[in-house]
């Protein structure tokens, strides 16, 4: 697996090994990918929202309700819908970060959990 999907898989694997008691609280939001029009319409009716972060750690910490993580590979940039969702998530009291590597992911998770400052 390469690219953003491979990076995200590596991040999940690391998290599950480091924080086994929290592993059920970190989950992916599979919004991306190509879908046919009927499937896309069905998902939209079921509540899929454009721009939602790739990973969410549903664990309140440091005054935040959750940690929302947008994964970007190398020089990938946020889409407008992702920037809009970031503003909404932060306004609702969540922390939002963009990670481009496993090292960035590890640093942000540890920082959020109060393990490293």
TrEMBL record:
Alphabetical UniProt keywords: Hydrolase, Nuclease
Keyword Hydrolase among record annotations: yes
Matching InterPro entries: tRNA_endonuc-like_dom_sf, VRR_NUC
UniProt GO MF annotations: hydrolase activity, acting on ester bonds; nuclease activity; nucleic acid binding
Cofactor field: Mg(2+)
Pfam families: VRR_NUC
Membrane-crossing segments per the record: none
Residues covered by the VRR-NUC domain: 1-103
Name this polypeptide is given: VRR-NUC domain-containing protein
């Amino acid at each position: 697996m390469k690219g953003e999907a491979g990076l995200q898989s590596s991040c999940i694997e690391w998290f599950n090994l480091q924080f086994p008691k929290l592993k059920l609280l970190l989950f992916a939001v599979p919004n991306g990918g190509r879908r046919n029009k009927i499937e896309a319409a069905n998902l939209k009716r079921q509540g899929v929202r454009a721009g939602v972060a790739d990973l969410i750690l549903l664990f309140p910490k440091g005054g935040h309700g959750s940690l929302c993580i947008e994964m970007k590979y190398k020089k990938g940039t946020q889409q407008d819908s992702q920037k809009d969702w970031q503003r909404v998530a932060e306004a609702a009291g969540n922390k939002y970060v963009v990670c481009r590597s496993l090292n960035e992911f590890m640093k942000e998770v540890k920082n959020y959990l109060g393990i490293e400052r």
